[in-house]
């Protein structure tokens, strides 16, 4: 008795990657705007924001057992398209059927009171926008950003999942792959995280830097003139002392004496 028909035909990883690549190439001719998720290394995410996104989802018991189902899909290039918009994620994921499945994920906007508290906590602790995007900030801020229910990252109750596949599970492997795809997207452009949570990243950075500058100026107001110059020089990246030394000296104007007419010599 043969049981061959009871099991799906085995397909190698290389064959799956090639199949997904051909499917993408075909779709891109009709829709050149589609953007696949490509994993080149051994890690699904490499930057702080990408890793933090994946770790946040995996810490919730609702997701921890289901997220791994999407790892092989994303590694095999099954995410043919993924886009992040304010409060939403859309994706096309190639499954076993000929037509890719459509995934729609809704993410609730970050609560205003949480956002206000985060901005307040970041005052004076962020140097620049680039450092924020690079994940170069104090450990205390990292803990603040990733705190459950009060941080930047969404909880399961703030995420709504939908896939066109016939799988009855709320989080199928196609949705799980798309969620991992978001982490890969954040590796490419961390600013998309703030777009997704529908908050203004410039507001966070500008207030943090403004607070630091204000504190520096207040502190400098109690110092001598030399120390104030040093602080202002450091803030704006200029050397005030050198500028002063290089300037042409202004010499005091000499007062010219008026010449008196010489008396004629008297005759002998």
Spans of at least 5 consecutive residues with low confidence: 223-229, 240-259, 263-268
Strand order of the largest sheet: 1-2-3-4
| Terminus-to-terminus distance | 158 Å
Tertiary shape: elongated
Summarize the main sheet. 4 strands, antiparallel
Number of strand elements: 4
Q: What portion of residues is helical?
A: 40-55%
The share of residues in extended strands comes to 5-15%
> Count of DSSP helices?
12
Radius of gyration: 32 Å
Mean pLDDT: 82
Q: What structural class is derived from the secondary structure elements?
A: alpha+beta
Order of helices and strands: HHHHEEEHHHEHHHHH
Overall description:
- There is one protein chain.
- The protein is α+β, with helices and mostly antiparallel strands and 268 residues long.
- Helices cover 46% and strands 9% of the residues.
- A four-stranded antiparallel beta sheet has the order 1-2-3-4.
- Strand 1 and strand 2 (88-93) form a beta hairpin.
- Helix 5 (112-122) runs parallel beside helix 10 (201-220).
- The longest helix has 20 residues, at 201-220.
- The radius of gyration is 32 Å and the shape is elongated.
- Residues 223-229, 240-259 and 263-268 have low confidence and may be disordered.
């Amino acid at each position: 008795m043969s049981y061959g028909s009871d099991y799906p035909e085995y397909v190698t990883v290389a064959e799956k990657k090639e199949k997904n690549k051909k499917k993408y190439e075909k779709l891109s001719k009709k829709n050149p705007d589609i953007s696949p998720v490509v994993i080149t290394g051994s890690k699904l995410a490499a930057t702080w924001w990408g890793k933090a996104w994946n770790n946040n989802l995996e810490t919730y018991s609702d997701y921890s057992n289901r997220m791994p189902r999407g790892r092989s899909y994303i590694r095999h290039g099954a995410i043919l398209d993924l886009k992040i918009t304010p409060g939403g994620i859309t994706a096309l994921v190639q499954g076993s059927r000929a037509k890719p499945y459509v995934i729609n994920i809704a993410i609730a906007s970050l609560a205003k009171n949480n956002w206000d508290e985060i901005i307040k906590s970041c005052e004076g602790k962020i140097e620049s926008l680039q450092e924020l995007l690079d994940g170069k900030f104090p450990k205390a801020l990292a803990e603040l950003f990733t705190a459950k229910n009060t941080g930047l990252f969404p909880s399961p109750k703030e995420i709504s999942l939908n896939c066109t596949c016939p799988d009855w599970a709320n989080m199928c492997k196609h949705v799980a792959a798309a969620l991992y795809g978001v982490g890969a997207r954040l590796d490419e452009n961390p600013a998309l995280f703030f777009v997704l949570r529908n908050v203004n990243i410039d507001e966070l950075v500008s207030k943090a830097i403004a607070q630091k500058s204000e504190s520096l100026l207040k502190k400098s107001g109690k110092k001598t003139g030399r120390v104030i110059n040093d602080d202002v020089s450091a803030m704006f990246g200029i050397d005030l002392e050198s500028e002063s030394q290089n300037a042409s000296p202004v010499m005091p104007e000499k007062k010219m004496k008026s010449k008196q007419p010489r008396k004629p010599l008297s005759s002998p």
